[in-house]
Amino acid sequence: MSEHFDILVVGAGPAGIAAAVSASDSGKRVGLVDDNPAPGGQIWRSGASPGAEADQWLTKLNASSAIRLQGWRVIDHPERGRLRAERSQECREFSYGQLILATGARERFLPFPGWTLPNVMGAGALDAMVRGGLPIAGKRVVVAGTGPLLLAVAAHLSRRGAKVVAICEQARPGRFVPFAAHLLSEPRKLLQGVSYLTATRGTQFYTGCWPIAATGGEKLESVTLERSGTKWDVRCDYLACGFHLVPNLELAGLIGCRIDDGFVSTDELQRTSVEDVFCAGEPTGIGGVDVALLEGRIAGFAASGRITEAVKLAQRLKRRVGFVRALRDLTALDPKLKKLAAGETIVCRCEDVSYGAMRKHAGWRAAKLQTRCGMGPCQGRICGTAAEFLFDWRSDHDDSHVRPPVFPAMVSSLRTTHINTEHDDSLIVPGTSTSISKETP
Ligand SMILES: Cc1cc2nc3c(=O)[nH]c(=O)nc-3n(C[C@H](O)[C@H](O)[C@H](O)COP(=O)(O)OP(=O)(O)OC[C@H]3O[C@@H](n4cnc5c(N)ncnc54)[C@H](O)[C@@H]3O)c2cc1C
Questions:
Q1: Does the CA dihedral 200-203-206-212 come out positive or negative?
Q2: Domains of the chain
Q3: Residue 63: helix, strand or coil by DSSP?
């Protein structure tokens, strides 16, 4: 069963919502596919009280003619102009004239002893769970890693009554100077930063500091922190730990969009290297919600032929490039973090593969074939990204090695998928232990 859209947007975060709203103003038939039950993406996800800006955009989306395909996860791009998606036990195809990829980003995790203990979570993940109802009042929380998300999460948890006992940012103080200079040209972010600092007043904020171990019995009880060679233990109930964000590039890679330096390459109108395919938001560079909205609007206007509007907005986007670069420089990982994992530390949580088992191999592909790392339900989204940093390997998430399905899928959805099994005897249906035989139709 296939449904046709003049413009199809994948991802209903801020970038995708802005793209769908802008494109639907043109009278084109626009579809917005997203794998969550409600639109909003990472920052405005359901269960949150997202605020005035989110309300405005969600209202615009509801008022627009864009058809919302909520709960559908795109798993494949069988051929030009066609996407395949799954929802519950259903599989459908959507065909398109123009495609806008707005697939967002995910948190980066780095392995250290104890990082798999219950109550050690991603910073964004804990934040989302609290927004979803997890009681946090009175709980002691250490927030660690890198990036502005740490302060945003610490502020939100504090407002919900958590005792944030430490915020540990791996970047050293010198890195904050150029970033702060760019922040001066972003008054909205500056105000936001001030409100976060106010909410976390009294909390210890350490720079050049990170967790080296998490310990506990059945769940987390304490975290060992290190700063300039000094180590100390902090008792806590939760460790919220994320090392900034990494873009979701799998679909762009599968379609064949050029990836430069870890991000989808686009021109000033958000056009990728593939004809009729645009990209907006975090996959083109981690720039926060304002940049995501702007890029989404540009892509929506450009895809629907409203080039004058798109060009005007592109001028505004240019002014923000400096901020995106400053954020990237601020969050560049300290090479010392490569030493966090011990030999027995699990790197691939899905398949229980340790750092020691992985480091014996020359590259990601060899490690994957020999140890099954990256072959579990997350398909290397966590360990592949960690391995890129730990071992300087290229995982297969951001280049031409991406193969369908980009998410674990039902075998029935794969039956007619054009999977190239010619060169790979070991192809495994993600999320299962079932090999696909070459006879699979
Ligand atoms: C907890 C948290 C707090 C944050 N706070 C701030 C803040 O205060 N200020 C700020 O500027 N930024 C903040 N950010 C960053 C902000 O979320 C991002 O900048 C913004 O959401 C990027 O929007 P996006 O549309 O590019 O991607 P996203 O919001 O990530 O949306 C992408 C959407 O695409 C969907 N998707 C991906 N692949 C597929 C697929 N194959 N099929 C179907 N759907 C798919 C995803 O599920 C998601 O819904 C925060 C992030 C988090 C996690």
A1: negative
A2: 2-104+246-325 (3.50.50.60), 109-243 (3.50.50.60), 341-436 (no CATH)
A3: helix
Mutation probe of ligand 1 site: the residue of 57, 146, 289 with most atoms within 8 A of C-beta:
289
Radius of gyration of the chain measured on its C-alpha atoms: 22
- φ/ψ of 221, rounded to 5, equals -125, -30
What does DSSP assign to residue 11? Answer: -
CA distances (Å), origin 339, targets 173, 301, 330, 374, 424: 21, 46, 20, 21, 33
Categorize the per-residue pLDDT at 182 as very low, low, confident or very high, splitting at 50, 70 and 90: confident
Task: Evaluate: CB of 224 within 6 angstroms of ligand 1.
Answer: no
Q: Tens digit of pLDDT for each residue in 43-90? A: 887 655 567 889 999 999 999 999 999 999 999 999 999 999 999 889
CA angle 123, 125, 131 (to 5 degrees): 105
> Side chain identity at 130, as an amino acid letter?
V
Provide the pLDDT confidence category of residue 181 given band limits of 50, 70 and 90: confident
**What's the pLDDT band for 248 if we cut at 50, 70, 90?**
very high
Q: Give SS3 for 97.
A: strand
Nearest CA to ligand 1 atom 17: 43
Ligand 1: atom nearest CA of 287 is 19
Q: Is the CB of 152 under 6 A from ligand 1?
A: yes
Distance of alpha carbon 11 from alpha carbon 20, whole angstroms: 10
pTM: 0.90
The answer to whether 54 and 32 have CB atoms below 8 angstroms apart is no
**Atom in ligand 1 nearest the alpha carbon of residue 11:** 34
Q: Which is the closest atom of ligand 1 to the Cα of 105?
A: 30
Per the structure block, which two tokens stand in for 180?
A: 């702060």
Work out which ligand 1 atom sits closest to the CA atom of 128.
1
